[in-house]
Amino acid sequence: MTVDKNKLDELVKSWLSIDMNPESRHEIEQLHISGNYEQLDRKWSKRIAFGTSGLRASMESGFSHMNDVTVLQASQGLVKYLLKKTPTSIVIGYDHRFNSQRFAEILASVALTQGVHVYYLGSVANLSEETMKLTKGDIENDSSTDRGYVHTPLVPFAIDYYGASGGVMITASHNPANDNGYKVYYLNGCQIIPPVDKEIADSIEENLTPWEGVWDVYDNIKKGVQKGLLSLAGDEVTKEYLKGVKEKLIQDNNLDFSFVYTPMHGVGYRIFKECLDLFHALTWNVVQEQADPDPTFRTVSFPNPEEKGALDLAIETARKLGYKLVLANDPDADRFSVAVETKGQWNQLTGNEIGFLFAMYVIEQQKEQDLDRVYLVNSTVSSQILKAMADKDGFHFQDTLTGFKWIGNKAIDLQKEGFKVPFGYEEAIGFMFDLVHDKDGISAATIFLQLYQKWFSGGKIDVTDKLEAGYAKYGWFKDYNGYYRLADMSTLDKIFTNIRGSFDSKSPENIGEFKVTSWRDLTIGYDSSTVDHTPVLPVDSSSQMITALLKLPGNDNAVVRFTCRGSGTEPKLKLYIEGKSTINEQSAKEIAVKCWETLKQEWFQPEKYNLTEVKP
After folding, report:
1. For a Cys staple, 395 with which of 18, 88, 374, 496, CB 3.0–4.6 Å?
2. Sheet-wide strand order for 166-170
3. Are strands 117-120 and 89-94 parallel, antiparallel or unpaired?
4. What's the burial of 60, exposed, middle or buried (CB within 10 Å: 0-12/13-18/19+)?
5. Taking residues 499-505, what's their average pLDDT?
6. Does residue 1 carry a pLDDT above 60?
7. Three-class SS of residue 252?
């Protein structure tokens, strides 16, 4: 590998002029002295990118990673951007991950030096060990008090409550233990979308040099409290959040069934318990080994409830107790998962299955005469069963691009037009209700408890029965989602270029045995289903995304829809396939599997492109 040593020498010099941490400084100095330019290149040559998700990367030194320096630089750019609109205020929250509290304190310090009002959801009585270690002189700290960890949805809720200019949650959600992130919300309580993301990114590039006094984190926070510029908002916001749950989400607070809950070593346990206090007659147990915040996530190989084996401990706990229901949140409690025992077998529901149950429940709660003013929303990679429901029941459906930044913003747009948006979801176990404009695992758990009470607590039907009845009414939908791991990120563009080069017009007539009935390419901006062939969803030439609807000649009972796209955060080509049948589940599954195999042979060709196939 060829590296530019002169460029790296300058980057090392730049780093050492900024970094105040003696440990990371020493590490870099030793790498430089020893001439380890390959390691320096990995740490520096590609600056951590700021996008619609903010920042997310592993925690280590260097401009390519999450650390004090890159967090400080991002914070200066964000604060400078928010200062364009006055008065300026910001909500700051953090979870239990390594360095989360420290990164939040750095952001608070930056904001306070610029006179920005900080609504701080965390603790200033018990500051992070990292800040205390780097503070000189007399310090006061009460290590016995709570550290103030919060679940991610509390940040957008607080933005709405205070009317703040924006907010940041320090979390990497369900990523591995050595990762962290910097999740940015705008003044509408939603994750940022273009052009705001680029404008903030540009502002960061213009504010890389530390401002005077920003590294005095301890003093800035203490003075901010004294001057009233930093408001300790955690207790007030939590109280209002619980009030919102009670008033907006709870219709039946009597529960007479038992269940097990796991917060997956995260921050969900406390707020979940407080929500359960709003119900009566509860019998439940938490998975004790996973109950408390643990940044090492010691009992799971990957702290994501979707991952195979992640709920094994919770299911085993339920089995021993004789319970038939497991509820789970991911570590920052913005996602939600369910496992159920039906007919003697334990099954974890997919995101689409949970979304379908929620959709049926939510629509049942609406007055029939009001359905023409109701929208349900999901992402384009999620199940189209919501569209089938809308067509049959008389409400409206809208799909969006992938991610809750799009779902939340679309919900706000529809609400401004006078529509109700009681529910939105994404297949990656993210669910949004009428409390915050983002996915919220605690809201989802609150709704699911009532759903379970209404349909299943009596024991006459189970979850499988309800899903089957829904499919019989709206059609059988079966997803077959997976991905291809890329050995080289540049391969992604090659694959999609070759796909588009395999047909003469803007869309193909056939893919293998399949006939193409609808084609949408959001990279080049073409949609065969619209009058002028312009997509309704936003076009982005910098990302790869194709969606198509296919059918097999002579088979009028089943169709299949797929979306293939590049991952924004990982070296993956993601493939979402959903078969639909008017006959039965098996027919829907068969056409979905056939679509996977056809795309593999015609397009993705793992051996040719050196891809690793990961099937469902």
Report:
1. 374
2. 55-58, 179-186, 166-170, 89-94, 117-120, 230-232
3. parallel
4. middle
5. 93
6. no
7. coil
- With 80 as the cut, is the pLDDT of residue 52 above it? no
Q: What is the mean pLDDT of residues 34-44?
A: 87
The model's pTM: 0.95
Query: Residue 505: which residues within 8 A CB-CB, separation 6 or more?
Result: none
- Phi/psi of residue 292, each to 5°? -95, 150
pLDDT above 60 (res 57): yes
CB neighbour list of residue 516: distance below 8 Å, 6 or more residues apart: 507, 508, 509, 510, 548, 549, 550
Q: Contacts from 227-230 at CB under 8 Å and sequence distance 24+?
A: 229/112, 229/115, 229/116, 229/117, 229/118, 230/108, 230/112, 230/117, 230/118, 230/120, 230/124
User: Is 166 within 8 Å of 119 (Cβ atoms)?
Assistant: no
Which sequence positions are flagged as catalytic?
173
CA-wise closest residue to 364 among 280, 453, 436, 454 = 454
Pairing verdict, β 325-329 and 258-262:
parallel
Alpha helices in 206-258 (DSSP H): 217-227, 234-244
**Other CB atoms within 10 Å distance of the CB of residue 226:** 9
Q: What is the mean pLDDT of residues 593-604?
A: 97
Question: Pairing state of beta strands 430-433 and 611-614?
Answer: unpaired
Q: Could you tell me which of 427, 428, 359, 430 has the C-alpha nearest to residue 395?
A: 359
pLDDT for 65 equals: 93
The packing angle between helices 100-113 and 68-82, to 10°, is 40
Q: pLDDT tens digits for 527-572?
A: 999 999 999 999 999 899 999 999 999 998 999 999 999 987 678 9
- Please list, in sequence order, all residues whose beta carbon lies within 8 angstroms of the beta carbon of residue 570, skipping any fewer than 6 positions away: none
pLDDT computed for residue 281 by the predictor:
75
pLDDT of residue 120: 98
CB 228 within 8 A of CB 117: no
Cα-based distances in Å from 491 to 485, 573, 609, 612: 10, 10, 7, 12
Q: Calculate mean pLDDT across residues 332-357.
A: 96
Q: Where are the beta strands (DSSP E) in 177-300?
A: 179-186, 230-232, 258-262, 283-286
Residue 15, phi then psi, degrees to nearest 5: -60, -50
Q: What is the mean pLDDT of residues 377-381?
A: 96
pLDDT of residue 169: 98
pLDDT at 32 over 60: yes
Q: How far is CA 476 from CA 141, 256, 427, 553, 611, in A?
A: 59, 31, 17, 20, 31
The identity of residue 169, as a single letter, is M
End-to-end CA distance of the chain: 36
Q: Read off the tokens for 175.
A: 């990523």
- Helix, strand, coil share of the chain (percent; to 5): 40, 20, 40
d(CA 220, CA 212) in angstroms, rounded, equals 12
Give the per-residue pLDDT at 46.
84
Nearest to 384 by CA among 413, 425, 349, 429: 425
Question: Looking at 363-403, which runs of residues are DSSP E strands?
Answer: 374-379, 396-400
Q: CA triplet 241, 244, 247: central angle to 5 degrees?
A: 155
Distance CA 415, CA 525 (A): 27
3-state secondary structure 505-570: CCCCCEECCEEEEEEEECCCCEECCCCCCCCCCCCCCCCCEEEEEEECCCCCCEEEEEEEEECCCC
